Amino acid sequence: MNHNVQFPLTPWTKLREAVGTSLGDERSAAINYLCSHYWYPLYAFARWKGWNHEDAQDQTQIFLSRLIERNSLEHADENKGRLRTYLLNAFQNQWSHHRERQRTARRGGGGDMLSLQMPGAEERFARELCDPALNPEDHYDRAWALAVVDACLTDLEADLARQGQAEAFAVLRPFLSPLSIADVSVSEAGKRLGLNDQAVRQRIFRLRAAFSKALRAHIAGSLADPTKEAVDEEMRSLRRALERL
Fold it and tell me: Which DSSP symbol is given to 175?
C-alpha cells in the first residue's frame, strides 16, 4: 500500500517540511492530509461548542489556512505527543484569543485565504445524533476516529483496485469496517465472488489484517513518539471514540 501521499508514518517531520515549501506535490499532499483528516473534526468541534454553521466553517477555514500559510507546525511541540491534540488546542487558542481578528480576516482584512471548505459538512453534522453525555472534545475525537477509519478503508480500496480486486473489495468491505454490519452473509458473498465459504473467510481474515495494519500506521503517524505502547493507547482511544457511535 502506498502511504507516501498521506504521510502516515512521520507527519510531525514530513508535514513540517511539506507545508513549509511553496509549491509542489508534497505540499499539496500535506494540505490534503490536514484537510481530509482534520477539517471536519475541527468544524464539528466548533459546532458542538455552539457556533453556527457559517462561523464554524469560517473559523476552521481561517485556522487551517493560517496553519498552512505560516507553517505553524514548525513551532509545534513534539513533546505534546498527538497531532490531533496539538491541532485542537491550537484551534481553541486561536479563536479564543483572536476572534475579532479572525472576523476581520474573513471580511478581507487578513489577506487571501486558501479554499479549504468541505462541501456537505453541515449536512453530515445534522445527521449526527447529539449525545448529551458527550462533550465537544468527545465529538472531536469521534470525528477524528471516523476520518482515520475512512482514510484506511480508502487506501485499502485503492491498493486492491490496482491489483484488479476492486469488485472483491466492494463485496467484502462491510466485513471490515467497525462502523457497519455486513448486509450479506459469508455464503452470499461467496456466491457473488465465485468462492466457497472457507475461501471467503480467508479473504476476510487477510483484509482485516491489512486494515488493522493500516490503522496502526495512520495512528503511529499522528504521534511524535510512536512507540508500541503509545500506538496501543491511541488505538484504544480510537476504539472508545467509535463505541460512542
Answer: G
- Residue 184 CA, chain-centre distance (Å), reads 28
pLDDT tens digit string along 89-136?
Answer: 889 887 766 555 545 555 444 445 556 666 778 887 877 766 667 788
Q: Is residue 1 part of a domain?
A: no
User: Does any domain span residue 230?
Assistant: yes
pLDDT tens by residue, 35-48:
888 899 999 999 98
Q: What total of structural domains would you count in the chain?
A: 1
Distance CA 139, CA 38 (A): 13
| Residue 202 located in a structural domain | yes
**Cell numbers linked to 53:** 454553521
Domain hosting residue 136, numbered range: 11-240
Angle value at C-alpha 176, between 173 and 178, nearest 5 degrees: 125
Burial grade of 100 (CB within 10 A; 0-12, 13-18, 19 or more)? exposed
Q: For residue 82, give the 3-state DSSP assignment.
A: strand
Say if residue 51 is exposed, middle or buried (CB neighbours under 10 Å; 0-12, 13-18, 19+).
Answer: middle
Residue 20 in any domain: the answer is yes
61/33 Cα distance (integer angstroms): 15
Q: Name the residue with cell 476492486.
A: 166
Q: Is 6 helix (H, G, I), strand (E, B) or coil?
A: coil
Provide the whole-model pTM: 0.77
